[in-house]
Amino acid sequence: MRQYNTIAESKNFIVLDDYAKYSMVSEPLVGYQTEFALEREFIQDLINQGYENPTIKSAEAMLANARTQLQELNNMVFSDGEWARYVEEYLDKPSDNLVEKTRKIHDNYIHDFVFDDGHIQNIYLVDKKDIARNKLQVISQFEQTGTHANRYDVSILVNGLPLVQIELKKRGVAIREAFNQVHRYTKESFNKENSLFKYLQIFVISNGTDSRYFANTVERNKNSFDFTMNWAKADNTLIKDLKDFTATFFQKNTLLNVLLTYSVFDTSDTLLVMRPYQIAATERILWKIKSSYQVKQWSKPEGGGYIWHTTGSGKTLTSFKAARLATELEFIDKVFFVVDRKDLDFQTMKEYQRFSPDSVNGSESTAGLKRNLDKDDNKIIVTTIQKLNNLMKSEGELSIYQKQVVFIFDECHRSQFGEAQKLLRKKFKRYYQFGFTGTPIFPENALGDETTASVFGRELHSYVITDAIRDEKVLKFKVDYNDVRPKFKEIESEQDEEKLSSAEHKKAMLHPARIKEISQYILQNFRIKTHRNQGGGKGFNAMFAVSSVDAAKCYYEELNRLQKDNENSLKIATIFSFAANEEQNAVGEIPDETFELSAMDLSAKEFLTKAIADYNAMFKTSYSVDSKEFQNYYRDLAKRVKSKEVDLIIVVGMFLTGFDAPTLNTLFVDKSLRYHGLMQAFSRTNRIYNATKTFGNIVTFRDLEAATIEAIRTFGDSSTRNVVLEKSYKEYLEGFTDIVTGEARRGYIEVVKELNEKFPNPEAIVTEKDKKEFSKLFGEYLRVENILQNYDEFTHLKALQSIDINDPQAIEAFKEAYFIADKDIAAMQELEVLPNRTIQDYRSTYNDIRDWFRRERSSKEGEESKVDWDDVVFEVDLLKSQEINLDYILELIFEHNKKTSDKIALIEEIRRVIRASIGNRAKESLVVDYINETDIDAICDKPSILDSFYSYAQEKLRVEAAQLIADENLNEQEAKRYISTSLKREYASENGTELNSILPKMSPLNPQYLTKKQSVFQKLASFVEKFKGIGGKL
Q1: Is the C or the N end of the chain the one with fewer CB within 10 Å?
Q2: Residue 212 phi/psi, 5° resolution?
Q3: DSSP-derived pairing of the beta strands 404-409 and 334-339
Q4: What residues are paired with 593 via a beta bridge?
Q5: Distance (Å, rounded) from C-alpha 568 to C-alpha 1004?
């Protein structure tokens, strides 16, 4: 046989460099396409791509097919008894939930099965080594009954198990509606007990023109529309059309790789499926390691490269996945995954320790790291840059220095970097190194000769801030250049570097009057900026970046002094440490603060001790300034900022880089930031969270406009500024055309005018056509108002509504408080604003329509409505963001009762408030009964009305629970346990077997069984809605 030599090998990436779109190579379809036709065409395309298409309509048929596929994969045959046992004990264990099933795909996919004749064989669910051996099938319109009978559009089976679910909608339907439907299914019947559908890993939704995929996760904060993704090419061009999505994402090798290689099941049991740019970067690193090895191109920049992924786009997941996959290359001896010690919060530490015990902890000691180097069973070593440095300094000769080693640096722009690089080049003889950065060092922002490319080699993949904003993976910035303090304007707008660092300038910036004015501004505007101005106090938290430890001290003391008499004072914390005067690599780099406090001067240490003592008193902790305790303080503070227990954190350098807290939406800045430091600091605020968080709020108390524009230009692309920065107040007021999508967006003025003209009386909205029109219009109002809330001008406009225009004193006080002139007031008076009471009525009507719509749709599933609701998306998140909590409603009752003792008027007013609140609507009858049955005049203060109501409600809870159990003849012990659990988690669920155990004794084959189960569940769900958050025991 002739021998062939390889001349060139294709790179075989699943994220393609080139792809010709279907619409460019074929004629577009003419005419209307129904949902059914879209589905048929999609399935035919998959069959053409090599998928099998069996007919499977029931759970039994699905199990039988799974048996055939698993026997084929494992090259064996089950007897009927063995198969039943395998299903019962492993494949579809009755007690398994979503998490258990997902773990089987990721970790426990090999099961040691004992056959009847006593021999044992490993039975694989999937083959992860030779991915092409896994068989793909496509089935459609499978029916399954959980709480509701749902028909699923299309499912993809891998070796007989449904791992991907596709939900198709006809062209023109809002893609978010398709998402909401999947969301409803997961709650209702995907998770029916004992169902193979719990193996689902990925959902795909498409309306023909927009196609997205997302992970099936029960994590509520990961389950919002923001976490859905389009597929893309390597240059980040999106692939949206279903035809193209099918040819690329559903190509067999690609889909199997996404499912089995490029998804992560983390230590907190959350399933994460990687995004196209993360996969592209990982593939290109692995390809580079292989090709550099083949041409012996190691230990030089040409053998590695860097990945430029913008801050907030999930760099750590990508870099860690690349490190894990690099360990699977046979010729590689060790992979070092290098992080900065300060980025190791508790969560990431747990994640890394899973793969690399001993080597990840906060200590400087290199003993654990050395032990790991000698172990043969552990190819991956996660370590901190500090430890790696110490190891190279202290160890002259180690065997690892001669081996094939890959280095992956998670953040490759840190200041310790220079020293590590010099040592690394000297010590290691065969290494390939890769760096990840959100802000590379280019010639124009480098301070020395070294740039990111000169150290690491060429850029292998980029995903810059403009890409991330276009894909809605990070938010825009709204920057408020806030120099409203006229007497300090000159020093605040100083740009000269030398003057900025002079002692006089620093002293002027810390003038007590300036500190006081800025502190007042922060306290006045904090609740508005962080969306906490509603009674519920939900919303976000904020960070305040200051220029020095002295500044931190001044602000910390002044803010606490100004708010000491407030009953709802902000929880303020601070953190800083010693920053060594090291050589900086790049302009604007934020000096690295270490955990070593011994070099800190005395006054700074005293202040830090006091701040930590305040923190200890606030949270009942016991941290101090010695090195180990300070690290624990750092981690605890990071955790409390992420969980919103801390309202405002004052920082100098720490937390401005690498710290990730999606609940932060505002950064106050009194610090000269440039380039890299500016982008890093701003990026603390732009993580996606929910629909209320529309952008990162930046409020600067010195003139950073030129620096912001320059930084954004450097780290984005040519059109960056228009994409990265939020529109002006005027544009949101009057409307504008979106540059990216080209669509015209109406302004606040026009939306309010139309609401007033079309729907002056919300009670008159009766016909289905009106309901739809109102829902669209009020949804538009909620969106634009949610954005405007972040603008100071809008705050002024709202504040003006409560002022008597004819009272000159009130007007003067208003002008002084907000630094406003007469002409501004005149302009504001011309604007039409909705009164609060009207907004309340509108919200109430909007909630009613939403409830009505859901009821209608479930009761008339088969009937066609004359009105097409496809393009209506209910803004539930925005309603929830302005939610008022129950305590606030009770305090309102107390306040109103002081003004009027007329119970009928009081009830009318409170009904209005409750109905406008999406979370408290179910409690309307409870609150009204309480008012009717209680002598509110006898209650003397707010705390007493809270006590009185909760005692009343807890008694009601016990009575109504007993009544419900008796009426429905339920199993008392089990029912009480079920109700208690549901109240605790705040919703009733029918997953698992809990619900079955409370029903009266009845055979599941009895035709009445399902009806009974359904009606009991509905009653329990209403009961939980009514009493959740009340407390008490059954």
Answers
A1: N
A2: -140, 155
A3: parallel
A4: 579
A5: 54
